[in-house]
């Protein structure tokens, strides 16, 4: 019995562990890139896009990146942090790009 437990302990990086690590890495990379993008975006673009201020989004992304890196996305706090990073990428960033004259200018579901 103890031999089997030792064998299970050696399989720490199983498929599930690998997926969790890749998700954690993706959340951290997306958070770091998002932080860089927010830091280099004009401050007046955020209110023009009806979003929180530049400082607020920078703080949200920094804290979310640190929490996702520390806990991983399978922990409740890490999951909340990953959702915050995803909200930036799918809602805030496209709105900022539209306000700044970059990105797609077509309908909400793609070109017509």
Give the helix proportion (percent range).
over 70%
Anisotropy-based shape? elongated
Strand-pairing-aware structural class: mainly alpha
Which stretches of 5+ consecutive residues score pLDDT under 50?
A: none
Q: How many beta-strand runs?
A: 0
Number of domains: 1
Q: Please state the CA-atom Rg, rounded to the nearest Å.
A: 19 Å
H and E order: HHHHH
Put simply, the count of helices is 5
Protein name: DUF2516 family protein
Pfam families: DUF2516
Keywords: Membrane, Transmembrane, Transmembrane helix
Transmembrane segments: 12-39, 59-90
Structural description of this entry:
The chain has one domain. It has helices at about 1-10, 15-40, 45-50, 55-70, 75-100. Helix content is about 70%, strand content about 0%. By secondary structure, it is mainly alpha-helical. It comes from Arsenicicoccus cauae.
Key features of this structure:
112 residues; mainly alpha; elongated
Present the secondary structure layout:
Elements (H helix, E strand, L loop, with lengths): L1 H9 L4 H25 L5 H4 L5 H18 L4 H24 L13
Helix pairs in contact: 2-4, 2-5, 4-5
Concise description?
With 112 residues, the chain is an all-alpha fold. The chain has helices at residues 2-10, 15-39, 45-48, 54-71, 76-99.
